[in-house]
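To fix ideas at the outset, we first show an illustrative case, written as a sequence plus integers encoding its fold:
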Amino acid sequence: MKLKIIKQYSTKDVKDLKQNIILNHGDAEKLKQRAYRSGCRNPDLVDDHVLYTVLNKNATYHHEHISRSAKSISALTPRRVELLAYLYKNDMESIMDLANGLMRNYKNVYDDLKALEENDIISLIRRGKNIKPVLNADRLVIDFG
């Protein structure tokens, strides 16, 4: 059994991803040189270079992450699936907003978000004093094959 986490990025998302990569590494040529020099010693640098190259060739980007961990599938409890569905339909600025929208206890929502973050289903992004929950997926697929 495996869990597929599928995300389709828009043209604007692709532009933002490219801009973030360049902000982190200076410019595309420096990134390319650093990635080739580091080889496999710095896989994150190589990943950024490969991603930037792919993004330069495509206006949109489709990313599929497959988890074969039973833990990632067990992380999808009914309450967490409800949370994901709500988050998919509503852009939440903070965990408190999400907890209020779901009419659930903040601590329970926070614990659910941390479990989902550990399995790469969501990201928690700090925005000033708030932590914004963001989906890493447009679709989740459980494959029994």
In short: Residues 70-143 form a domain with the Arc Repressor Mutant, subunit A fold (CATH 1.10.10.10). The helical segments are 11-25, 28-38, 43-57, 70-74, 78-89, 95-102, 106-118.
